[in-house]
């Protein structure tokens, strides 16, 4: 029994080491698209075939990193609104923007998840990702609705906008070498690559204000489904 517990703990630690290594390399290399399993495994200090014991593929590893990102975003956001009430729409937008932009690798992964990662793993792995990410999403929505004047549908729409905008803006703000050189040559085109957080915050503020008119206000029966 003790050996089994030690084995489980070792597996958890090594899995986390692979995720940490992937995140660190993604930051150094300019995005998860540059990662290889071999580089991640080497950074984590494991044998070159070691990653396969914990993750079936690169896609599985990156999906796990995205899943961890959802948990990190929820934790940061809930911590910011803990004990607060009556937050205005624009204040909620600023909190959403600030907490997601502190997770650059997660922002990067938000573009890759629907385009590739979810479709390149087996259905049970995809199911687990959906189950866990939706749980984190619902926890964020509940916390923001409780702390603000926004309704659950309004917060849901704002979170959806934040994810979509952060995914797209992160890619634009971290161009491939050819585009980076082009922006250097033509600076007026490259300004979009320089203001990721300010641009996201501005548009989320506008979205939040628009939602107060476009989506029904808080109802006494408001709650998260499920």
Automatic annotation (TrEMBL):
Positions of the HTH tetR-type domain: 12-73
Protein name: HTH tetR-type domain-containing protein
Domain of life: Bacteria
DNA-binding region(s) in UniProt: 36-55
Residues of the signal peptide: none
Record flagged with keyword DNA-binding: yes
Keyword field: DNA-binding
Organism expressing this protein natively: Gryllotalpicola reticulitermitis
Keyword DNA-binding: yes
